[in-house]
């Protein structure tokens, strides 16, 4: 059970990291476009 | 046993292995809740202040935004009857021809950014122009400024 | 397992029968829910949200008090997640529903292009130019249809079942939180691809939209809880 729980917890944390990482990436990408273009 | 005593402190359904995770999630939910409510409450005052309420009524703000949106000083925000989208009938601006854009696969709008309470200034300047036009006659440059 | 321990313990307390305990728990939960529902409805209107929040918090206090008194009520986090995801769904539905279904009303035309001019020109650019009306941004209508007719009804139904501690409610909350992730990924990608259109001449470009919308990530935050909670506490 303990090993299962540990794997589960790591997987769930990985999902959070991926999704917030994606959002942060898009945010930074949009900021970069803002800096480069005439908005 | 010691473990059962600790278990009693845990909320229902929370296994000991995930107790800390559940606490963090609960606190995050409180942050999001307060954030949502506060931003919901602040949105209308912020929009109202920026776009000229109460000097302009909300309907006048709508008019001014339409003029900026389609780069056309004669546009207004009219009441629409039931024969409007999505129930049928043409869109309010469906046949407009005045919008200024750089067209391409990614259109880029050419209307200007609206500054703090700039709509109020827009309205006042336009009305001053119209008064001058009415006073001076149709040949005066204040009527129909050159495109 | 913990539930039967609780109720068995309660039955042991002198003078309080099991039926009585169940009945008192149900009443306490219902009392708390009245405040929670009222608060959530007000918060769902956005403008009256600041009035709804104290009502909601009072519901939580009542529930916690019942819990400390030994009654069998919903875990606080289930209440919090259930109502918040419902609030998230309601706020999203409101904006998109008036854009898709009420785009030619005064309310819609006063609120949406104004908000759009400040945060996201997708709702300002060529507003009501499309035959279907509303926001003209590429792809926006598709997301609205998906949200209003599939994702948010599913979300609200799941929350109701989840708050009732039903097994199907728990399962469908997992489904709807994952669909929330699908929506966010796709929607943000679309915005970024058409960034010139969405942010040119906006009062608070990029940062404004993100600060405004980041508080709608409740489905993401709830997911780890939904996957690690003991399923036994949800009944058939």
Please, could you describe this protein's structure?
- The complex is a heterotrimer of chains A (39), B (147) and C (236).
- Chain A has 39 residues and is an all-alpha fold.
- Chain A has one helix at residues 2-36.
- Chain A is rod-shaped and about 55 Å long.
- The model of chain A has no long low-confidence stretch (mean pLDDT 93).
- The longest helix of chain B is centred in the N-terminal third of the chain and has 33 residues, at 19-51.
- Chain B contains four helices and two strands, in the order H-H-H-E-E-H.
- In chain B, strands 1-2 form a two-stranded antiparallel sheet.
- With 147 residues, chain B is mainly α.
- By secondary structure, chain C is mostly helical.
- Chain C folds into two domains: 1-73, no CATH class; 76-236, no CATH class.
- In chain C, 73% of the residues lie in helices and 0% in strands.
- Chain C contains ten helices and no strands.
- The model of chain C has no long low-confidence stretch (mean pLDDT 91).
- The chains are: A mainly alpha (39), B mainly alpha (147), C mainly alpha (236).
- Chains B and C meet through helix 2, helix 3 and strand 2 of B and helix 1, helix 3, helix 4, helix 5 and helix 10 of C.
Short description:
The complex is a heterotrimer of chains A (39), B (147) and C (236). In chain B, 49% of the residues lie in helices and 3% in strands. With 147 residues, chain B is mainly α.
Layout of strands and helices, then pairs:
The complex is a heterotrimer of chains A (39), B (147) and C (236).
Chain A: H1 2-36
Chain B: H1 2-9, H2 19-51, H3 58-69, E1 101-102, E2 108-109, H4 118-136
Antiparallel strand pairs in B: 1-2
Chain C: H1 2-12, H2 18-44, H3 49-68, H4 76-101, H5 106-119, H6 140-163, H7 167-193, H8 195-199, H9 207-213, H10 218-228
Number of domains of chain C: 2
Please, what is the average pLDDT of chain A?
93
Low-confidence stretches of chain A: none
Q: Helical stretch count of chain A? A: 1
* Beta strands of chain C, count: 0
Which segments of chain C are poorly predicted (pLDDT under 50) over 5 or more consecutive residues? none
Gyration radius of chain C (Cα, Å) is 21 Å
Order of helices and strands of chain A: H
Mean pLDDT of chain C: 91
Structural class of chain A: mainly alpha
| Strand/helix succession of chain C | HHHHHHHHHH
Which chains share the greatest interface?
B-C, 59 and 71 residues
Strand content of chain C is under 5%
Helix content of chain C: over 70%
């Amino acid at each position: 059970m303990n090993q299962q729980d540990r794997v589960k917890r790591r997987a769930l944390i990985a999902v959070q990291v991926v999704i917030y990482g994606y959002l942060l990436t898009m945010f930074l990408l949009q900021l970069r476009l803002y800096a480069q273009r005439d908005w | 046993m010691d473990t059962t005593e600790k278990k009693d402190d845990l909320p229902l359904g929370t296994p000991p292995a995930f107790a800390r995770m559940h606490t963090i999630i609960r606190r995050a939910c409180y942050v999001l809740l307060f954030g949502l409510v506060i931003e919901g409450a602040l949105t209308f005052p912020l929009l109202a202040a920026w776009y000229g309420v109460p000097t302009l009524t909300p309907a006048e703000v709508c008019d001014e935004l339409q003029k900026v949106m389609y780069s056309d000083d004669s546009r207004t925000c009219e009441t629409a009857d039931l024969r409007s989208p999505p129930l049928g009938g043409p869109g309010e601006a469906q046949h407009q021809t005045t919008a200024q854009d750089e067209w391409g696969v990614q259109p880029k709008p050419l209307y200007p950014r609206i500054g703090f309470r700039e709509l109020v200034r827009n309205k006042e300047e336009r009305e001053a122009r119209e008064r001058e036009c009415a006073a001076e006659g149709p040949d005066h440059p204040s009527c129909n400024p050159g495109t | 397992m913990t539930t039967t321990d609780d109720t068995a313990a309660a039955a042991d307390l002198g003078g309080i029968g099991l039926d009585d305990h169940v009945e008192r728990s149900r009443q306490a939960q219902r009392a708390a829910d009245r405040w929670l529902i009222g608060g959530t409805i007000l918060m769902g209107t956005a403008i009256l949200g600041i009035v709804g929040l104290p009502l909601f918090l009072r519901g939580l206090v009542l529930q916690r008090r019942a819990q400390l008194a030994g009654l069998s009520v919903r875990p606080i986090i289930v209440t919090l997640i259930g109502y918040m995801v419902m609030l998230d769904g309601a706020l999203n539905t409101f904006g998109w529903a008036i854009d898709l279904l009420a785009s030619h009303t005064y309310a819609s035309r006063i609120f949406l292009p104004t908000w759009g001019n400040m945060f996201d020109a997708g709702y300002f650019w060529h507003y009501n130019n499309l035959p279907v009306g509303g926001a003209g941004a590429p792809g926006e209508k598709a997301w609205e249809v998906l949200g209003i007719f599939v994702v948010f009804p599913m979300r609200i139904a799941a929350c109701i079942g989840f708050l009732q501690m039903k097994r199907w409610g728990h399962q469908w909350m997992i489904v709807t939180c994952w669909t929330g992730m699908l929506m966010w990924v796709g929607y943000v990608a679309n915005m970024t691809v058409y960034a010139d259109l969405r942010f040119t001449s906006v009062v608070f470009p990029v940062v404004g939209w993100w600060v405004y919308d980041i508080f709608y990530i409740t489905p993401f935050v709830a997911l780890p809880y939904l996957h690690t909670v003991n399923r036994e506490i949800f009944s058939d």
